[in-house]
C-alpha cells in the first residue's frame, strides 16, 4: 500500500504526543503512591502503564492515516510493550529505563551490520525524504550508527547514576534535542551528496 500524505502537524502530534503525555503525567504523579490490589505502585509505574496503550494507539493511528509505519516505529512499539510491561508487572522502573538503551543499541547494530555488507539500511527508511548518492548514505549511516551507540551509553549512565527526574527530562527533552541537532549538523553532507532532480 502506498503511503498517504497526512497533515504534518498530525504526524508530529502522533510521533511526540505520547512522550509529551508521559512527561506531563509523570510531573503530576511523581512522588505519589497508589495501592492497587494490595500492592503499592509509585506514580512512575502508573505513568508507564498508561504509556503502553498510548504508544500502541499512536502507532495504529499513524498506520491508519498514512497506510504505512516504519520498521523503527514497529520496533519501538514492541520494546515499549515488552519493557513497559515488565516494569508494571514486576513493579520495577529499571526495565522501562533500559528501553532506550535497547532501542539505540539495536538500531546501531542493524546499521553496523548493513555497513559490513557495504549497504546503508538507513537509505531504505529515509530515501524518499532526502535522495543521496550511495557514498553519502554510507557516511550518514556510519555517523548515525556511532550516534545511536553514544545515546545508548548515555542513557545507561544517566539512569544508573542519576535520579528518575533527571532520566525523565533526558528522555523527554535530551534525546529529542540530540537527534534534532545531529541531523541539523549533517547539512553539509546533504548538500555535498544530494542527487539533483532532473527537470523534464
Automatic annotation (TrEMBL):
Job description of the protein: Plays a role in cell envelope biogenesis, maintenance of cell envelope integrity and membrane homeostasis.
Keyword Disulfide bond: no
Name of the protein in question: Inner membrane-spanning protein YciB
Provenance organism: Actibacterium lipolyticum
InterPro entries: YciB
Name of encoding gene: yciB
HAMAP family (UniProt xref): YciB
Transmembrane residue ranges: 12-29, 41-62, 74-90, 102-122, 143-162, 168-190
Major localisation: membrane
Key word Membrane present: yes
GO cellular component: a single term: plasma membrane
Similarity comment text for this entry: Belongs to the YciB family.
Keywords of this entry: Cell inner membrane, Cell membrane, Membrane, Transmembrane, Transmembrane helix
Pfam assignment, any one: IspA
Membrane topology: Multi-pass membrane protein
